[in-house]
Specification:
The protein is an alpha/beta fold. The protein folds into two domains: 1-56 and 242-294, no CATH class; 70-232 and 315-484, Alkaline Phosphatase, subunit A (3-Layer(aba) Sandwich), CATH 3.40.720.10. It is built from 15 helices and 19 strands. The chain has helices spanning 3-10, 18-25, 28-56, 82-85, 90-94, 102-105, 143-146, 163-172, 182-190, 248-269, 272-295, 302-308, 317-329, 348-372, 444-454, and strands at residues 70-75, 126-129, 134-137, 150-157, 200-204, 228-229, 334-338, 379-384, 388-389, 394-396, 401-404, 407-408, 412-417, 425-427, 429-430, 437-439, 442-443, 464-466, 469-471. A hairpin with a 2-residue loop joins strand 18 and strand 19. Helix 3 (28-56) crosses helix 10 (248-269) and helix 3 (28-56) runs parallel beside helix 11.
Length: 486
């Protein structure tokens, strides 16, 4: 058997070490000599890989002083309309039904509407909330209670205009799958604060996520930094509970056997991903006791459950928010909660009423709960989607669409709270129709740079070398948005 056939039949080519290659390709006495020469080295390489995997999640101090120690990212997948929730535009009502001026459109093209589509006025009434007097839609009554605790960024913009690329861009800094996610970078930089739960947890409460698992992938980073998806009901992770009829000792013996086999293979090939597998099995074993305790919301007070408006046994966005607070208390570094369903190409009024009813109370309660427990200062909460919605109406008789809005990358709104972010302010401004950013624009890479800054990192220096060059979350751009820092 030649070397090439050995490579492709026994091992992923990307995982082949040079020493393993020579060991397999050697023949006769040469192979014996090579095996004798390298056996000790390979064992040391395997031990080193296992050691690196275990050390990867050891808690570390960031290079600079950062206020935030954990992040909760509330991702409104599908893209809420900034024009109908957070960025009041009286001119939209004034120009409703009229074509938008060509001078504003420029050369912009859209997926589902013509560039000369008529303007659609705001679907909801705006009211002033809090001491800061920020205007927000009246279908966000709970957000009005925390408006003085958040920074509203009305000048976000992105490079992407379709869901999956835009979601990937906001989460990983690139529009194509394969780059490390924000959560992976955070855990890569700070390690874990607990060994009983994953450092990076992902939950979903909507109808699906366009960008899929690439949104929380570790990309070229070791897979120990990948987000762990929790299910909405039952065991948070499949097969965490011990099967009926299997004793604790029998399970422990099985895990020890599997680990022994994995370590033998690790000693042969020195592949760090095998070390990650060993660490994952051990985490699964610990989750058998830590996960049920985490998920048991009946230990929360009635006042807390009423604050979030959640049934402890019913999967909802509010329940996920309460779980996120419990995770932060237990040392989880990064939590993603995806709520898919904001893609209002038709009936924006009905779509946004439904989604605000599902998410408003839980998101506001999370900020209130963290604040009253003294955790908000060191926990960064982020809320927003992948882009905005057009000032123009989307009506498509063939597709059965009317009174909706198309994708809009030029401008959208996000909010942030805690973790070193200045509260009770509005940053940035769009034009009279909410089409373009006209003041203090914040690009997605600027947002990412700012998030890393709150955690104590220089986004240009938090890098990982791969394929001959250094990669970073913000690619080759991005600036910290200093006016929003406390």
């Amino acid at each position: 058997m030649n070397c090439q056939s050995l490579l492709y039949r026994n091992c992923d080519p990307q995982l082949v070490t040079r020493r393993w290659f020579f060991e397999q390709c050697g023949v006769g006495l040469g192979r014996i000599a090579l095996a004798g020469l390298f056996s000790g080295v390979l064992t040391r390489a395997g031990a080193a890989a296992a050691s690196r995997a275990s050390e990867s999640l050891v808690a570390r101090t960031s290079p600079y002083k950062g206020r935030a120690k954990a992040v909760i990212h509330l991702f409104m997948a599908g893209a809420p309309s900034h024009l109908d929730l957070f960025d009041p535009k009286p001119k939209l009502a004034e120009f409703e039904g009229k074509p938008i001026p060509p001078s504003i459109i420029g050369g912009q093209r859209y997926a589902f509407i013509r560039s000369d589509a008529a303007v659609l006025g705001p679907r909801f009434r705006f009211v002033r909330r809090g001491e800061s007097g920020v205007e927000i839609a009246d279908i966000l009554p709970h957000f009005g209670k925390i408006v003085d605790d958040v920074c509203l960024i009305r000048s976000m913009h992105t490079d992407q205009f379709n869901h999956a690329p835009a979601q990937l861009f906001l989460n990983t800094g690139a529009a194509q799958p394969g780059r490390p996610s924000l959560g992976s970078w955070v855990v890569y930089g700070l390690g874990a604060q607990t060994s009983d739960l994953p450092a990076f947890v992902v939950m979903s409460t909507g109808s699906g996520i366009s960008g899929g698992a690439a949104n929380w992938s570790s990309g070229m980073l070791p897979t120990v930094y990948t987000g762990v998806r929790f299910r909405n009901q039952g065991d948070p992770i499949l097969n965490v509970s011990r099967p009926a009829g299997v004793s604790r000792q029998s399970q422990r013996d099985t895990l020890d056997l599997v680990e022994n086999l994995d370590r033998r293979r690790l000693d042969i090939v020195g592949d760090p991903e095998i070390a990650t597998r060993i660490a994952s099995y051990e985490m699964a074993d610990r989750l058998e006791s830590s996960a049920p305790e985490l998920m048991n919301l009946r230990s929360e007070s009635r006042a807390t459950l009423e604050l979030y408006g959640c049934d402890p046994d019913k999967p909802t966005f509010a329940r996920a928010c309460l779980l996120a607070r419990r995770m932060v208390e237990r040392g989880v570094r990064f939590i993603n909660i995806y709520h898919e369903g904001w893609d209002a190409h038709s009936d924006l009024n009905g779509n946004h009423r439904q989604n605000c009813a599902a998410t408003d109370q839980g998101a506001a309660a999370l900020v209130q709960d963290l604040k009253q427990r003294g955790l908000l200062d060191e926990t960064l909460v982020i809320w927003g989607g992948e882009f905005g919605r057009t000032p123009m109406v989307e009506s498509h008789p063939v597709l059965g669409r009317k009174l909706g809005r198309d994708h809009h990358p030029q401008a959208f709104t996000m909010w942030m709270a805690g973790g070193g972010i200045k509260p009770g302010i509005v940053h940035g401004k769009t034009d009279d129709l909410g089409f373009h950013v006209v003041e203090n624009g914040v690009h997605v890479h600027d947002l990412q740079a700012t998030i890393l800054h709150t955690l104590g990192f220089d986004h240009e220096r938090l890098t990982f070398r791969h394929a001959g060059r250094d990669f970073r979350l913000t690619d080759v751009s991005g600036n910290v948005v200093r006016p929003i820092l406390a």
